[in-house]
Amino acid sequence: MANTEDDSLYPIAVLIDELRNEDVQLRLNSIKKLSTIALALGVERTRAELIPFLTDTIEDEDEVLWALAEQLGNFIPLVGGEEYASCLLPPLENLATVEETVVRDKATESLRMIAARHSPADIEKHFAPLVKRLSQGDWFTSRTSACGLFAVCYPNVSVALKTELRMLFKCLCTDDTPMVRRAAASKIGEFAKAVEMEHLKSEIIPLFIALANDEQFSQDSVRLLAVEAGISIAELLNESDIETLLLPMFRSAASDKSWRVRFMIADKFTELQKAVGPTITKNHLVYHFTGLLKDVEAEVRASAANKIKDFCTNLPADIQEQVMMPHILPAVKELVCDTNQHVKAALASVIMGLSPIMEKDHTIQHLLPLFLILLKDEHSDVRLNIISNLDSVNKVIGIHQLSQSLLPAIVELAEDPKWRVRLAIIEHMPLLAEQLGVEFFDEKLNSLCMSWLVDGVFAIRSAATSNLKKLVTIFGIEWAQNTIITKVLSMARDPNYLHRMTTLFAINVLADVCSAEVITKFMVPVISNLAHDSVPNVRFNVAKTMAKVAPVLDSNTIETCVKPCLTRLHEEDDDNDVKYFASEAL
Q1: Cβ(301)–Cβ(293) under 8 Å?
Q2: CB-count exposure of residue 406 (10 Å: 0-12, 13-18, 19+)
Q3: pTM
Q4: Sign of the CA dihedral 276, 282, 284, 286?
Q5: How many CB atoms lie within 10 A of CB 562?
Q6: Which band of pLDDT confidence, cut at 50, 70 and 90, is reported for residue 301?
Q7: CA distances from residue 26 to 41, 135, 509, 585 in whole angstroms, order as listed
Q8: Which of 91, 132, 202, 524 lies in the 20 to 30 Å Cα band around 5?
Q9: pLDDT score of 410 more than 80
Q10: CA 352 to each of CA 20, 380, 511: distance values in angstroms, whole numbers, following the listed order
Q11: What is d(CA 308, CA 311) in angstroms, rounded to the nearest whole number?
Q12: What phi and psi, each to the nearest 5 degrees, are found at residue 199?
């Protein structure tokens, strides 16, 4: 009997010992094994012994407390199911008051998970009192945690308790501590969705407006969180109420003295646009959006510039032109010459997307000159963003206009000193080739593609070989034989061994799209000759290339060319790597 009792106490004893160990990692591992210990104890002893122990004795490193908060969120099955979920509230309530933010946040998250599994009766009996205690705690830490619990609690309590919860939330919104008001501002949008419409207009929106104008302590951190909450609240209201109740706040945020608040509204502008609807957007938001595009702070301009395409796309079709031509386009023209490269890079990433909205004539007249300015910008990331979006312009203005206006600039970029810019051009070459057609490509761009094969940067040479494969897929084998294969194979005689290796790399990728006849007639002789190269790197790449092309060759070619070549490399070569790859190929 005594032994049985000792055995039953063993899991708790082990946990206590490990939680008192000086090694943080051991304590952390112990917390992570809580579910195993709970299973060993059973649901009754977990409720009666383990949970009280965790409630009373946990004072530890933040990492351990965070792990505990996470574990407790998944503990409902281990305490006997949803009817006993309330026993998990005390340890999580303690964790929701600690100083470290990440621990409090995890405890709040677990409390929200557990609240979702509570019955309405248990919410009112156990969870709502917890929210009240946290809301009225002496330390700001408990009050900040409480802000995240109102929305999950409110829908399931009595009318009287709802009134009390709204009053408590009001106290948190007007708390003396900025951290509490900040937490309230971040959660007021969520709480607004849970509150009845009559109370939303009469109580919650005035609180929100107070937070959005939180200048008592110059807390821009509170005001910027209120922007996102305002968008959530706007989604609940009709246009008339938005214009009356919320629009003044959004106007104020767009011209706030803090650049961080202006940045936040610029970042959320398209969400705001969707929330308030087209009429308010046209009558009020367009003015503020152009203001953000001209903001004195580069970060705000860049954030707003990123939203230009989405903002214009979201406008109703019947007002797009009358908004874009007099308001957006002049601001875009100013941004093209902005002094800050990040602003221009943000603009370059979206400006091409305006073409489908503005259609052909306006694109040619107004946007093409701007594209050219950005294509020639001194900063590589600006040029790169333009190149990456060429296809959207081509669909609107056609390849002839594109080749006349943008192609010279693209050719110039293909020879750019920065290799990443050259790489971006290579990646877009198949797209250009497909749209330009074979004649135009051969005349303007073929020599460019061949020059990349002897580039000084390996990434460019590698991308150039892959590019050749895509071009053969587009233009066909006959074009490849007449135009590129001879040029590629002639590089096998180049004095620079890197260029000779590029020949082998090109054969590797071209073999996927070339016929067996072309490979046998043109490529195999060149590979065989390179087997006598003085550089070991070339010779072991010969072995790898032979292995690549062998599956498509006939038995006669394999017996007379491939095997003798590989056998000689395996048996006679002085280099161990060459021997290894030759034996692998055999």
Answers
A1: yes
A2: buried
A3: 0.68
A4: positive
A5: 20
A6: very high
A7: 21, 35, 53, 51
A8: 91
A9: no
A10: 62, 17, 37
A11: 5
A12: -80, -30
